[in-house]
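#onboarding

Welcome to the new folks! Below is a worked example of what a typical request in this channel looks like: someone posts a single protein sequence, and someone else replies with the predicted structure as tokens. Don't worry about understanding the tokens yet, we'll cover that in week two.

Example request:
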Amino acid sequence: MDEREFGRSGQKASVIGLGTWQLGADWGDVSDTDAKAVLETAAESGVTFFDTADVYGDGRSEQTIASFLSGRPDLHVMVATKMGRRVEQIPQNYVLDNFRAWNDRSRRNLGVDRIDLVQLHCPPTPVYSSDEVFDALDTLVEEERIAAYGVSVETCDEALTAIARPNVASVQIILNPFRMKPLRQVLPAAREAGVAIIARVPLASGLLSGKYTKDTVFAADDHRTYNRHGESFDQGETFSGVDFVTGVEAAAEFSALAPEGVTPAQLALRWIIQQPGVTTVIPGARSPEQAHANAAAAKLPTLPTETLDAIEELYDRRIKDQVEGRW
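Example response:
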């Protein structure tokens, strides 16, 4: 699989990575056996970028990655984790002492002395404007606890504030055919600054797979049930903030645009990695079959202009008014 330069970090990442939220929690139960099989299949399919967080299963996702990689010393995988969501979300908690403690825990979970990339995990908006926060992150680099740092954001304004920081290596942001606003300012600014873009929630929590109907019911411990209206965390993380019924209807139209032999999910992933400025996209997977199919999207031919235009027209007509004012 093609790899791209990962911003200012000096590292590289496969154009399609693996998001491992599903392997921790919040998507229904995934067994240890299935989690290991997903990681194995992704790696064998050419994926060299795993994205996790200290809150995914309260460390389970990090530990699962560590267990897998310890048995595969032949693999070179860039592992990115996140920190900050295990405490009350107030700016005062984003200080060096906490960063060191959170980093110690993640390094233990991952079984490494230095983490390839640590990202602030969608912190309160004022954090992005704090010199002290980024000085503290620089200190973690100086202490060789981390090789590089980035931020995971909810809004385009937060992304632009972070990109202006001189040592930010990456910005992780929701980007998919149902969330196009970052294309206009965020991606051009990142390209100009040499900042990597990690596209998350690429399938709009599965909507863009085209598999759901208005009557689909998700498990009680699945965020697509308990966070549909932002009850537990930012609503944009669930279905990209799109109303479920609207999303299902729009996804049916999106599915009809997929070329023969291409799944709607693969169409969405191909669309994302085709956007100038995207470094890697991190679909999740609950099964080896999903992991393999996601990785295969990297080998699809470039989407033609008529398909790109049709996707944009669908977004403008059905989705734009629901999401652009909030994120």
